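How a chain folds remains the central question behind the approach discussed here. No coordinates are needed to read the tokens, only the vocabulary itself. For completeness, the protein is quoted in full, as a sequence line and a line of structure tokens:
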Amino acid sequence: MGAGTGSAHGAFDVELIDLADVGLPVFDEPHHPRLRRYVHQHTKGWSATVDRTDAFIFVSPEYNHSFPASLKNALDFLSAEWADKAAGLVTYGGASAGLRASSALKPVLGALRILTVPEGISIPFFTQFFDADAFVPNAELEAAGKAMLDELARVTPPLRTLRAS
């Protein structure tokens, strides 16, 4: 699944969100996220970013048989903003293809009421798909990306209706 696959699919307006650019510190709000009583501007900005989305594709490496702490921290900063939205998972690693990251991430997303579609992508030995600085997927990864986007497009409208009610 290349960087332009989501935009080319046509079902979504795609926004790339890099957690390094978001720059969240370790959770520092004085109130539980479910209250939405944020005091820090970085949390208010993160809340607005997540709130305006309908669906997500989380791209994560496998790190120590799980997903990175930066992703867990970003998820934990918010609560209601995640609820009743869909997500696809793209994980990568060596021989494991990031499957342990995906397995660890799913219960966390479920606790936040994010519906994870089964059409995920796991990329083994991910460095083989780089040509210079660009990710160049093979036909199988492209097909998996299309299937994931198709499923996200199918479940997003009913979830949007659910959130509005």
About this structure: Residues 139-164 form the longest helix (26 residues). The mean pLDDT is 94. The longest strand covers residues 85-92. Strands lie at 55-61, 85-92, 114-116, 121-123, 130-131, 134-135.
